[in-house]
Amino acid sequence: MPTVKASALDPADFARRFAEAARRQGFRAEPLAEVAGVPLAAYTKRTPGPRPRLYLSAGIHGDEPAPPLALLRMMETGVFDHRATWFLCPLLNPTGFLRGTRENADGADLNRDYKDLRTAEVAAHVRWLERQPSFDTTFCLHEDWEAQGFYLYELNPEGLPTLADTMIAAARAHGPVETAAIIDGREVNAPGIIRPVSDPLLRENWPEAIYLRQHHTRRSYTLETASAQPLEQRITTQVATVTTALAALVSTRER
Fold first, then answer.
1. C-alpha distances out from residue 35 to 80, 105, 187, Å
2. How far apart, in Å, are the Cα atoms of 186 and each of 153, 166, 194, 205?
3. Which position among 79, 88, 152, 205 has the lowest Cβ density within 10 Å, counted as fewest Cβ atoms?
4. Quick one: pLDDT at residue 252?
5. pTM > 0.90
6. CB-CB contact of 206 with 112 (8 Å)
7. Which phi and psi angles does 215 have, rounded to 5°?
8. Are 65 and 100 in contact (CB under 8 A)?
C-alpha cells in the first residue's frame, strides 16, 4: 500500500473507502446517523464458533487522523478475519475532521459525553452499543499532541491476562515509547502503561473507554500514538499494536 501523506482526512472520502473495503471483507454496515452529510456507521462481522468478540473505535477527535486510517488499512489488508467476531466504529466525529478540530462542529468533546449523552453522535453510538453483545476486549485508538512516544491505558479491574506488555513491545519496534513518569496527569505503572484505579462512577464526564468498561467489557485499552511522529509511523504503530494483541488473544483462546 502506498505511503499515506500527512494531510487532513476527508471524512466523506474516508467513509466511502471504508464502506467499500468492509463490504469486500464481508462486513455488515449499520447506519447510526448522518452528520454534516457524512454517514456515521458501525461495521460488524460475526464469525461462528468460540471466537473473541472484539470492538475497535477511532476518529472521535477530528485532529487525530492516524487511528481511522489505521483501521482502514487493517480493513483493506484483511486483518479483521475469521479469528474473531468484529465490531468497528471507524469515524465517530465527522464534523471534527471537516474542521480539523478535536471537538465536533458544536464545540463538544465527544470523548467526554458518554455519561450525559448530550451530543447526537454519542447518543447514536450508545444506542447501537446497547444492541450489541458484551465484548471480550475493546480498543479505542487515539493520538496525543503532547506525547513524544506511544502509550496506552489499560482498564482491567478483574485482573484478566494483560495485553499491555505485548502491545508496548510491538509499538517499540516502530518508534519510541513514552518515557515520562507522569502522562496526562497520571502516574505510569510501567513505561508507556497507565492503569487508572479510580472509580469511574466518580468521574464527572465519561470518555468512551469508561462507558465501555462500565457497560460492555471487562478489559479495555486506549492506544495513544504521538502526533509529533510522522503520520505513516503513527499508522504503522497502531496497526502493529492491534495485530499483536489479536495474535495474543487468539493464542489464549486456543490453549
1. 26, 10, 37
2. 10, 21, 7, 17
3. 205
4. 61
5. yes
6. yes
7. -120, -20
8. no
203 vs 221: CA distance, rounded Å: 18
Q: Give the span between the Cα atoms of 130 and 112, in whole angstroms.
A: 18
pLDDT band at residue 49 using 50, 70 and 90 as cut-offs = confident
CB 60 within 8 A of CB 25: no
* Res 61 pLDDT > 60: yes
Of 64-73, 86-95, 138-147, 199-208, the least confident: 199-208
C-alpha Rg value of the chain to the nearest Å: 17
Q: Are 28 and 44 in contact (CB under 8 A)?
A: yes
Per-domain residue ranges for the chain? Answer: 11-254
Which residue's C-alpha cell is 471480550? 136
Set of cell numbers at residue 200: 469511574
In the chain the first and final C-alpha atoms are separated, in Å, by 34
Q: What is 11-254's CATH number, 3.40.50.300, 3.40.50.2000, 2.30.42.10, 3.40.630.10?
A: 3.40.630.10
CA distance 66 to 231: 6
Determine the Cα–Cα distance for residues 237 and 231; give it in Å rounded to an integer: 10
pLDDT tens-digit series, residues 24-40: 999 999 999 988 888 89
Strand pairing class (85-89; 182-183): unpaired
